[in-house]
Amino acid sequence: MATLRSDAEVRQDVLAALQSDVRVESTRLGADVVDGVVTLRGVVSTEFEKRVAADIARRIKGVRDVANELRVVAPRPRPDEQIETDVRAALSRDVWLDERRVTPRVRDGIVYLSGTVETYPAKHGFAVPDNPTYDPAAEARHWAALERLYRARLPCPPV
Fold first, then answer.
1. By 3-state DSSP, what share of the chain in percent is helix, strand and coil, each rounded to 5?
2. Taking residues 45-73, what's their average pLDDT?
3. 137: left (phi over 0), alpha (psi -120 to 50) or beta
């Protein structure tokens, strides 16, 4: 017979998991748990961060559902040089690729990547912004630019 976890235990584990994941800035996040349903509250910088936080919470033992009430507030515009530095740092943390083979270039807040990767999933992993440099207001331009870059520089089989 499985033992049920208390809401307090689940809440503690959710907050610990959010704190330990580098993809989420957890200092502005909170979680409440009632009957195994986690409600996430607070502010994040990107839609990606919002989705990741909910995914992290869903993986905790004892979570029955997640109500994601996180608000996305875009960070102030940042200089291209600072964005490029952050992208290089994110690439260097990715265990699935050799960051020496991928070159980021930033123009008007849009990140362009060129180079080679070993696998199809590694290629498409780039399309997910995993740092606060992503500008939600430019999402459509971002995805279109990345798709053009991928098709031109990193050929792969059709999906």
1. 45, 20, 35
2. 94
3. alpha
- C-alpha–C-alpha distance, residues 24 and 22, integer Å: 5
Q: Which of 23, 48, 72 is the endpoint of a domain?
A: 72
Residue 77 contacts residue 49 (beta carbons within 8 Å): no
Together in a domain, 110 and 127: yes
Same domain, 91 and 46: no
Which has the higher per-residue pLDDT, 56 or 119?
Answer: 56
Residue 158 lies in a domain: no
Query: Which of 29-33, 43-47, 100-104, 151-155 is predicted least confidently?
Result: 151-155
pLDDT value at residue 129: 44
Domains in the chain: how many in total?
2
